[in-house]
Amino acid sequence: MTTNRRTHMNRSARLPAGFLVEGLRPGMLVQHGNLAMLPLLGQDRPGPDYILLSNALEQGLATVTEVSEAGQVPNLAVRNDGDRPILALDGEELKGAKQNRILNLSLLVPARSTTVVPVSCVEQGRWNYKGRNFGASGEMLFARAKAGKLMAVSENMRAYGSRLSDQGEVWDHVARKLDRLGATSSTSAMQQAFSSRRKSLRDHEQALRPVAGQRGAAFFIDGELAGIETLDREASWLALAGTINRSYALDAIETEGKDVTPPAEANAAALLDALAATEADVYPALGLGEDWRVENEHVVAAGLVVDGNPLHVAAFKPVDRHIRRFPEPDSVDEQLGGTRWM
Fold it and tell me: Which are the contacts of 249, defined by CB distance < 8 A and separation ≥ 6?
């Protein structure tokens, strides 16, 4: 028997945001060209026993499909056939089916369930099936676009109670990235931007390898703070470090060859201090846990918190965005999807 659970978007609380990055300390700065990484070290958090989305797909424990034969650009269906929940990260790319997409937020998909998840398209020129299921591309939305998307999703959560991005803005970011890198794609696919710079990205990944005890990092491009990402445990960072590193490296390689500017490590501390000094809007998450959102003049951030443990946190300085009007959803249920328990 199948039952449905409506996902409510009412903000449930405002809580101190410093909780999201408690227990982290800086390691030794590592630099490759104009990209630098400041490892963030800390003990593992005692959170839930999950499996990463890419691993679940590889092991046949998860299936990602269009929500129907016709498909919906802003939604995909994630079926978890395993006995553990699946952790999927904000910005992770899924390739295949009718067009490649990226996740709009981080979520923990319950075991033995199918969850409709909010996504954005990163392949504007295709709407035809390339296989029935999605696979993990191993890439993540590049950091410059991710910061703006995070802000757009947070705004839409407040304004309309949905988790839509600004799709037009995402497409603009991808088109500009392809143009700046001189990468050609007949379908305007973000994946081609990564493919066109594979060797350089691999070099960055090798240079910025994880260190013992690392479960996060602050990244700097041309000496300026580009963003901070953290996970709840060292093993997860080790598994995803390459994907996360490349999402920053793809921005850094645009200005390769410039004089290398020493990273302003104090800027990372300032962003973390700004996070600690503010409060987060806390919403029920899609899937398990809570979705924490922070936005002020100093910092924008999103964190997935489950059983009192932050599983994934992304934080950036606010960025200038080309603001578009959000289309008000005809049906909140239609836009949000929900979880079908099996």
Answer: 35, 200, 201, 204, 205, 208
Residues of the chain by 3-state class (helix, strand, coil), percent to 5: 30, 35, 35
Burial of residue 257 (CB within 10 Å: 0-12, 13-18, 19+) is exposed
The pLDDT tens digits of the residues spanning 32-58 come to: 999 999 999 999 999 999 999 999 999
Q: Which residues contact 228 (CB under 8 A, 6 or more apart)?
A: 21, 40, 216, 217, 218, 219, 268, 271, 272, 313, 314, 315, 316
- What are the C-alpha distances in Å from 185 to residues 15, 181, 192, 254? 44, 12, 6, 18
Q: Where are the domains of the chain?
A: 8-321
218-274 pLDDT, tens digit each? 999 999 999 999 999 999 999 999 999 999 999 999 998 777 788 888 999 999 999
The token pair that represents 230 in the structure block: 């953290």
Q: Where do the DSSP E strands lie in 181-271?
A: 214-221, 224-231
CB atoms within 10 A of CB 86: 28
Q: Is residue 231 within 8 Å of residue 48, measured between CB atoms?
A: no
**What residues contact 1, with CB distance under 8 A and at least 6 apart?**
none
Three-state secondary structure call for residue 32: strand
User: What's this model's pTM, rounded to 2 decimal places?
Assistant: 0.91
Q: Give the helix/strand (H/E) hosting 238.
A: helix 234-252
Between the two ends of the chain, the Cα-to-Cα distance in Å is 7
| The one-letter amino acid at 290 | E
Q: How many residues does the chain have?
A: 342
Q: Report the distance separating Cα 158 and Cα 287, nearest Å.
A: 19
